[in-house]
Amino acid sequence: MLKIKGLKAKVENTPILKGLDLEIGTGEVHAIMGPNGSGKSTLGHVLAGRDGYEVTGGSVEYRGQDLLEMEPEVRAREGLFLAFQYPVEIPGVNNTYLLKAAVNAIRKHRGEAELDAVDFLQLIKQKMKIMDMDESFLSRGVNEGFSGGEKKRNEILQMLLMEPKLAVLDETDSGLDIDALKVVAEGVNALRGGDRSIILVTHYQRLLNYIKPDYVHVLSGGKIVKSGDHTLALELEEHGYDWLKQEAASA
Amino acid sequence: MSEHKPTSSARSYELAHAEVAHQLPAGGWLDALRREALSRFTRQGFPTRRDEDWKYTSLRPLEQQRFVPSTGAAGEPDAQWLEGLKIENLDAIRLVFVDGFYVAGLSTADELPEGVTVQSLAAVLADEPERLKGQLGAVADQDMHRFAALNTAFVADGAWLHVPADVEVQKPVHLLFVTTADDTPRLVQPRVLVSAERHSRVTLIEHYADPEASTAFSNSVTEISTGEGARVEHYLLQEHGSARYHVGSVHVAQQADSEYVSHNINLGGALVRQDIHPRMLGEGANVVLNGLFLVGDGQHVDNHTRVDHAVPHTGSDEYYKGVLWGKGRAVFNGKVIIHRDAQKTDASQYNGNLLLSPMAEIDTKPELEIYADDVKAAHGATVGQLDEDAMFYLRSRGLDARTAREVLTFAFAGDVVSRMGLAPLRERLEAAIARRLPGGGLA
Ligand SMILES: Nc1ncnc2c1ncn2[C@@H]1O[C@H](COP(=O)(O)OP(=O)(O)OP(=O)(O)O)[C@@H](O)[C@H]1O
Ligand SMILES: [Mg+2]
Q1: Residue B424 belongs to what H/E stretch?
Q2: Which ipTM did the prediction report?
């Protein structure tokens, strides 16, 4: 699904990713943990194609294609989805408009017929039920005035509609209350299975109780410094990152 | 104001005037009015950038050309094109003017409420000139607005709209001004006169459009008086061709408790200067000024508004937005003058601008002059680019860059559009925005 080799990236001339290697197989769920500022969101943005992130080395292969050559919208249409750590508020752009435009952009790309208003409404209502979202969110501006947790739900709603092949969820669990966490986890699990792969960026073991990862990685100082199975997350929860940093320093 | 010697261009208008004078409607008071205006204009000449009000707008391209004063419709507009200028789904009383002159055959001045007059100005001047005596030129301040003097000097046709007391004109009055595109650069000077008497209501659409090749220079003047408690809603829709010059001024005199609502929409033209100048002369009067200008490559659009709060308990609410791209240039100057006696005035003004390219330029300047002490006044201006976070967010959801940019531009302009009461006009405007934006056309 995804092969990242020696990825280096700069933001405003500051190197952030410093030779990152990561391979995600089809249908796998990987968790990425790591200290604040270590480059987790940067990785997500580089994968999604955000302007201003300069890739200075390495390669990213996505489903056999050179991901870094693709425009952000093409990546999205090809099935790459980023749930933002900080979803953007866009006043004046209707939430339903965006959801429908997103779905139809993908359908068109796949050569499928675009959904009309009626079909779309039916689809969206069904997905909103999964996310336990009130229909009043449809008539609001994109994320406009949404609470932190509502924004995260809206991200997962978008994901459910866009049915990505690779989803990168950047701290989707942060700021969620306990019930919302379950709802979001259900949303993710609803999509899990088959050949869909997921990258979960999180600080907390809690989410991983609901969505059990196949692999856990630690990103620190712009590199993956440790990988393991789900028990690594438990270890991190208990001991923090210091032991890893020491390990890295002595290596 | 500084002294001006008659410039050569002003003199050329004097000569042009002499050539067409015999074709203009005649009459004792009208001749005097015209003579006086002509000498005023030639005395003052064209404004230059030394004039504070023209600091950012050079009239050089206008001065270098000789425009022939229009004395009648020079051609027949293409029927299909004209049909496209109807505002879809709007049942309106429509008067069509070609090169500044009324064409009855293209107009539909049908059943009007009792006593209401919607007529060609030329017809009134020919048949019952006394009706306009003391009205024509009464509202426009021709010292402040030199082009108003030029218009008056040549006044021949336009529209006369009179609504008697307590009458509401249900259908909007659509005045459509088009020009002929041929080899002659023409000076077109329509005059619109609106008198809404006490407690009357009317909606007016002053609409300018041209075939793309038109090279006309239009200098329009609109004078509106609102009687006590009257309400006039005024759409000014400019869909000029890209080689057009337009100078326009709107002058409003408002009596107590009356309301003047203006929607000033600039979509085209090479050089456009629009002045809007409401004066609130009676207590309880209120003004709403909305504006939207879309300015692209090769365009210069200058909006000057001046609101005079002359008496206590008056309100004004101004909201203008501009979208610029390419090498588009725009000017916004909003003057609000709260005179000494105008206590309890409530005035607010905002101008927001979106620059889609680094080459586009806007000069925006709010000017609040407050001579009373018990007033509420607020103003603000912003200039910004498209929000990159929002752009990326939309693209990450599969929208291509062009669509994302259009969507965000719509979102920016949307609140001005939604302030407009007539849904068919909003729709026309939305379509025009989509058409006009760089890249053109929503996907
Ligand atoms: N535009 C920018 N200019 C300069 N530095 C930046 C910019 N964007 C990100 N950085 C820096 O890059 C580093 C990595 O940031 P990133 O957001 O990827 O961290 P993170 O691992 O997601 O952290 P967190 O766990 O807090 O979300 C940080 O030190 C951050 O300050
Ligand atoms: Mg982060």
Answers
A1: helix B423-436
A2: 0.96
